[in-house]
């Protein structure tokens, strides 16, 4: 049996883990094609999550649900094997959310009332390099903060819409379907407040207040990301300042010379 450079036997399992590590984290053409394929599958899963309230009564829903669970489980297992420290990997918030999403997929009836949290898959995906590497290659890396703000707002809207739909539909509040729940969420988040659709009871009023407060905060965050002068994330090696102008030569805080990579390579 061949030995690796560190003296550990080079087993087939170890080679398999090394291959996964290269596919998930390297910049080779093969790895980039693999990462793009994973991104496409993730986007398809997210579309299913968004459409699941409308598909739940369909006879094929459970088959699709379990198929998505299989894909997500395989992805989680592969990422665990690609990790150099599985325990530390398991402590990441994005991984915890993905594991919970997998549980809701495996038991769609038991977790019906919490199934709307599956849309958080979009949020966890936006926290991984798999999503941003293709965007950087096509010149969108400098818009990462704006795209992230848009994703945060979209995730919030769909989570709240699904929550309102599952918790308040057909309870004399005017919410008879998913579109009504989305209409109420957008009207509440934007503080338009037409009043034709409301959440009944004290719990409904408290939920509306929370939706408005968080929604306004996310809108402000999005506006800042759009209208604030564009910056790049590059930690200053001396003072640690994180954001600089794309063409900055010196750090504005301490004056040290910076070497910020071009946006196409950063």
UniProtKB/TrEMBL annotation:
<feature type="transmembrane region" description="Helical">
    <location>
        <begin position="147"/>
        <end position="168"/>
    </location>
</feature>
<keyword id="KW-1133">Transmembrane helix</keyword>
<protein>
    <submittedName>
        <fullName>Ion channel</fullName>
    </submittedName>
</protein>
<keyword id="KW-0472">Membrane</keyword>
<dbReference type="InterPro" id="IPR028325">
    <property type="entry name" value="VG_K_chnl"/>
</dbReference>
<feature type="transmembrane region" description="Helical">
    <location>
        <begin position="36"/>
        <end position="55"/>
    </location>
</feature>
<keyword id="KW-0406">Ion transport</keyword>
<feature type="transmembrane region" description="Helical">
    <location>
        <begin position="61"/>
        <end position="81"/>
    </location>
</feature>
<keyword id="KW-0407">Ion channel</keyword>
<keyword id="KW-0813">Transport</keyword>
<dbReference type="InterPro" id="IPR013099">
    <property type="entry name" value="K_chnl_dom"/>
</dbReference>
<feature type="transmembrane region" description="Helical">
    <location>
        <begin position="206"/>
        <end position="223"/>
    </location>
</feature>
<keyword id="KW-0812">Transmembrane</keyword>
<dbReference type="Pfam" id="PF07885">
    <property type="entry name" value="Ion_trans_2"/>
</dbReference>
<feature type="transmembrane region" description="Helical">
    <location>
        <begin position="93"/>
        <end position="116"/>
    </location>
</feature>
<feature type="domain" description="Potassium channel">
    <location>
        <begin position="154"/>
        <end position="226"/>
    </location>
</feature>
<dbReference type="InterPro" id="IPR003938">
    <property type="entry name" value="K_chnl_volt-dep_EAG/ELK/ERG"/>
</dbReference>
